[in-house]
Design goal:
U3 small nucleolar RNA-associated protein 4, 4-stranded antiparallel beta sheet, UTP4, 4 helices, 54 strands, Methylamine Dehydrogenase, Chain H, RNA binding, mainly beta, 720 residues, 3% helix, globular
């Protein structure tokens, strides 16, 4: 087998600027089924992560040029799905639609550029701090998509850098003049400043109060500022209680646990510090102590978030290093941690083996390289005139000298012909008004079967077009099943949306998997009625068809299933291989900390890869197993397992499927020289693996040391 290694693709993830959990911590309850983490990046993208089973990246809400996400907040009221809001270098607040990936509503706050945002505990109001020194109150009582301007609080001289709701009657803000101010929301003092506190001043410039966290149970709040100080204040008397100068530079973020007895701080010096409340029988003897610090980041820490439930407690951090780091709140000092690397479990690379081309998209740019026998060369670079970030690309050979490239954003779909010359590709845009009138944006595009184009619109409609020499003709709209009404408690707007899809080899059928765990089988030529294939217990993470038109599924808990898709096999959904092997997968595969990010089928082999590993399963051979059934790795406390989640419906795993999985009949094991399973960690970090030629594969890597990760604040590097 030929393995082509490519290390020239210059993909660089963007800085993490904001983090927000969808639910508030409650250490007395199990984790809610709808728990998600929103991750904002400097290019305007917002990623939605599910903390179950080693953290699954579910979707990305695409940003746009010059629209960095500077703040995120969820509003969660009983009986409603959580609502996500963002701010970013403008006077607007944006509410997002997780189903379409588009903004649901925008509201101008009628003040200066917004620097910070926070929501109250009941989810009925937002407060935003602006650069003109004002705090604006926004009412959310109208429901999803409705934001109403309520009033502007009393202005002061300089911009508000951090804002927090102390309770429904008080807001606390950190300002650029070295002061912390309290605004009252009570009727008699509505919007007025009722308290002002000064922090330590720098000799050369004003102190900036970047971050605040409130502790109502202790009548205290905490601030972090540009001197590196973490200060604890009395909320009633507005006096300083304690001060720590543990940081050597600006404290950019603060977070607290569910009880308010632990505080975490981080900033430019890269260290995360932990403070604990030491309670005494004599109230005057109670005080805060500095416990310890940990150095896990290589650069500035821009955001900290904590979520706690009955069985789990996560401290998530991110910043200029671009990676998410997850660790335990209880085991902060010496416990394990998980670094979610630059891969986002969704590919921004497309390959075309016939034309020997590799394409990468990032922001508004698409780059195309040609892989030669001895070297590679950048042969085309396309930059879109629109501000929207690219959501998907697909590339395929049209003729011996012409390759077709399709590029989509959330609002447009553009098609280009790439004509081969000696040193580069000549790029020409297809101009078809009828095509533009039908399609207005896409979540995903895919070219298949002699330049047919499948488009998944933001509304999850599926269209098929035929790409010609100069035009793009609509062939059909694929009919899907009506999945409305099948929703878990605590779900989201995107619950019934399409998660992923896969084509059969002859492209006559397409399977789609939804976020509600259902798998549907659709016809691309009208030969079959759409039908539901199955409903799984867990989310479909990846899936691909084999040469025999069976469907291989990798669920988010790393279970591999091979399903029969023929109408003749309705009574036996699992193939013989799946019945014999799905419950006996190797521990080497099950215990991988890094999530799978891609899968493809080549002959009888199913290739699966993550950022630091590459493996295959041969579906013609049975797996060797020991006498005892293989067990998954014990939980490390850094991601949520199935039995620790509230409101999951067991009926989501069909009974015939569950029964079939526990069978293991007398099987034939591989002979000498045959491998039913193979895994290597030789290639890393992997961005993409695809078939290349008849029997070869291409492995596209991005070296970590090639990323711009120079620390702004130098500290001796310690291995932990």
């Amino acid at each position: 087998m030929d393995i082509h290694r490519c290390r020239f693709v210059d993909y660089t993830p963007h800085i993490i600027t904001a983090l927000a959990f969808s639910h508030t911590s409650d250490s007395t309850k199990n984790a809610p089924a709808g728990l998600r983490l929103a991750v904002g990046r400097s290019n305007g993208d917002i990623e939605i992560w599910n903390p179950r089973f080693n953290w699954t990246h579910e979707l990305t809400l695409p940003g746009a040029r010059g629209r960095a996400v500077e703040g995120l907040v969820w509003s969660h009221t009983d009986g409603e799905n959580p609502r996500l809001f963002s701010i970013g270098g403008s006077t607007y607040i944006t509410e997002w639609d997780l189903k379409t990936g588009r903004p649901k509503a925008n509201l101008n706050c009628n003040a200066g550029v917004i620097w910070c945002i926070d929501g109250n505990s009941s989810g009925s109001r937002l407060a935003v701090g602006c650069d003109d020194g004002s705090i604006v109150i926004i009412n959310l009582a109208g429901g999803p998509g409705v934001m109403e301007f309520e009033f502007i609080c009393q202005k002061q001289d300089l911009r508000v850098l951090g804002v927090r709701w102390y309770d429904d009657k008080t807001i606390i803000g950190g300002c650029a003049d070295g002061k912390v101010r309290c605004w009252s929301l009570e009727e008699e003092n509505r919007g007025r400043i009722t308290g002002s506190m000064k922090v330590d001043r720098l000799k050369t410039e004003s102190t900036l109060v970047w971050s605040i966290v409130c502790l109502p149970s202790k009548n205290q709040f905490v601030t972090g500022d540009s001197t590196g100080a973490v200060k604890f204040w009395d909320a009633k008397t507005h006096t300083l209680v304690q001060s720590f100068t543990t940081h050597e530079a600006d404290v950019l973020c603060l977070s607290k646990d569910s009880t308010g007895n632990k505080i975490f701080s981080a900033g430019i010096d890269r260290r995360i510090h932990n403070y604990s409340y030491l309670e005494s029988k004599n109230k005057k003897g109670s005080r805060w102590i500095h416990n310890d610090s940990r150095l896990l980041h290589l650069n500035d820490v821009r955001a900290l978030e904590i979520f706690e439930c009955k069985a789990y407690n996560f401290l998530v951090s991110g910043g200029v290093e671009r990676s998410l780091i997850v660790q335990s709140v209880d085991k902060f000092q010496h416990g394990p941690y998980k670094k979610i690397l630059m891969d986002q479990q969704i590919s921004n690379i497309a390959t075309c083996p016939d034309s020997e081309l590799v394409a990468l998209f990032q922001d508004q740019t698409v780059k195309v390289w040609r892989i030669g026998d001895e070297k590679h060369k950048l042969v085309a670079k396309i930059t879109l005139s629109e501000d929207d970030n690219v959501t998907s690309i697909s590339i395929a050979e049209y003729s011996e000298d012409v390759t077709v490239l399709v590029v989509s954003t959330i609002n447009t779909v553009k098609t280009f012909s790439l004509t081969r010359t000696e040193n580069k590709l000549q790029v020409r845009k297809y101009r078809d008004e009828s095509f533009d009138s039908v399609v207005s944006g896409a979540k995903k595009v895919h070219i298949f079967d002699d330049c047919k184009l499948l488009i998944q619109t933001p509304e999850d409609e599926l269209f098929i077009f035929q790409i010609g020499d100069t035009s793009i003709e609509l062939i059909d709209e694929i009919e899907t099943l009506d999945s409305e009404g099948s929703e878990l408690k605590g779900g989201f707007d995107h619950f019934n949306a399409i998660r992923t899809f896969a084509f059969t080899n002859d492209c006559s059928r397409v399977a789609i998997a939804r976020f509600n765990n259902t798998v549907e089988l659709l016809s691309t030529n009208g030969s079959e009625e759409p039908r539901k294939l199955t409903t799984l217990s867990n989310l479909v993470h990846l899936m691909q068809f084999t040469d025999t038109e069976s469907l291989v599924i990798l669920s988010d808990d790393n279970k591999i299933l091979e399903l029969n898709t023929s109408l003749k096999q309705k009574t036996n959904l699992l193939t013989q291989w799946s019945q014999n092997n799905s419950e006996y997968l190797p521990n080497a595969f099950l215990k991988m900390d890094q999530k799978a990010q891609g899968m493809f089928v080549q002959g009888k082999k199913v290739w699966i890869y993550g950022s630091q590993w590459l493996s295959f399963f041969d579906l013609s051979l049975n797996l060797q197993v020991s006498k005892q059934k293989s067990k998954k790795r014990a939980r490390d406390g850094l991601s949520i397992k199935e039995n620790d989640v509230e409101n999951l419906e067991e009926a989501y795993f069909e009974k015939d499927l569950a029964t079939a999985l526990i069978r293991r009949e007398d099987v034939e094991y591989p002979g000498k020289g045959e491998m039913a399973f193979w895994m290597t960690q030789k290639y890393r970090p992997i961005l993409k693996v695809d078939p290349w030629g008849e029997q070869g594969i291409v492995v596209i890597e991005r070296e970590v040391f090639a990323l711009p990760a120079t620390a702004a604040f130098e500290l001796p590097l310690m291995k932990i």
